[in-house]
Amino acid sequence: LRGNHEDPRLLLERAFGVCSERPLIGENNEWWTYAQCGRAAKALASKLPDDGIVCIHGRNSKGWLIADWACALKRAPSLAVDASVTPAEAYALASRSETLTCALVDDDRAWSALDGTLSVMRLADDSSIEKPFTKRPASEPVTCLLTLGSTGAPKPLEFSADDWADWCGSSVKSKRERNALERRSVRVSCQALVAPLAHGLSRRMAWSEVLHGGRLGICDTRGDVVEQIRRYAPTHLSGAPRFYSLYSGKSGKLLAGPRLRFVAVGGAAVPRSLITTLKKLFPEAAVSDGYGMSEVPGGIARDGKVLSGVTVKIANDGEILVKTARGRIR
């Protein structure tokens, strides 16, 4: 499924067919195959409106991923909002500049009370009855991520189709991660999803796995996260420094099992001491910290150094300005 800047949304459709019998999403001791997820995503896509944007608001779940993929199949612009944001705040953010026509959410009652004209559906909807639907024009934005940045104020980051191809294509063609698996003869990769899917790093890693035919294990942070991670026996693990700090007293095999091959940390300032600790915890894994995964395909910096082909400047107002190798400015 490796593409050369091919639209990842087309690769997604292909993955549902090529990998149809493989397990894709694991949640609550149950696995859904690529075919099941594809049918559910297409069924939901048929219910999405033909105009406006779709807000995805909720905790990590199978329903969240299905909603994301349904928007991709429909070509409906989406806005992902972290579950820590209240429905009222999420509604205000989503309806700020564009026409909000649909919300795929955990708390459907709260959202329905906010706007009686809004089409509101629960993320837990497992309907798999496929119906024909019309795709939106390819020229529309793919999605909008909300990044907190250094100021802590949510800032919208819009992705065009070309941006999305760069962003996901960077994952599809990433030799570093794939070679880390191939060198150690791990045939089936699995990403344990702990960080919120509304954040750039976790969502990008999820797309990378599905486009490679891998698996995604949903971790509910309200339960025993370590036990859930061990159950999935992941090859890939990503999260913020706070997540790893909570479990730094445990051995690497106790935390994630023997198959772990790639550890990513980002989303906040990463102390050098944490990287040293992670390398000791996971001696068989490639450990990497990244910055700017939401803004630039592959990130702005990795392991403390600005990446080749990326130019970084500081504006007068303190904002970070980034120019990518393809000339795009963020």
Comma- or semicolon-separated keywords:
330 residues, alpha/beta, nine-stranded mixed sheet, six-stranded mixed sheet, globular
Structure description:
The protein is α/β, with parallel strands linked by helices and 330 residues long. The protein has 12 helices and 17 strands. It has helices spanning 8-18, 34-45, 62-74, 87-94, 108-114, 161-172, 175-182, 200-211, 225-232, 241-246, 252-256, 272-281; strands at 23-27, 30-33, 53-57, 78-81, 100-105, 119-122, 143-147, 155-159, 190-193, 215-218, 236-239, 262-266, 286-291, 301-302, 305-306, 311-314, 320-323. The strands form 3 sheets. A 9-stranded mixed β-sheet has the order 2-1-10-9-11-12-13-14-15, sandwiched between helices. Strands 6-5-3-4-7-8 form a 6-stranded mixed β-sheet, with helices on both faces. Strands 16-17 form a two-stranded antiparallel sheet. Strand 9, helix 8 (200-211) and strand 10 form a beta-alpha-beta unit. Helix 1 crosses helix 2 (34-45). The longest helix has 13 residues, at 62-74. The chain is globular. The two termini are 28 Å apart. 44% of the residues are buried. Mean pLDDT is 81; it is low at 180-186.
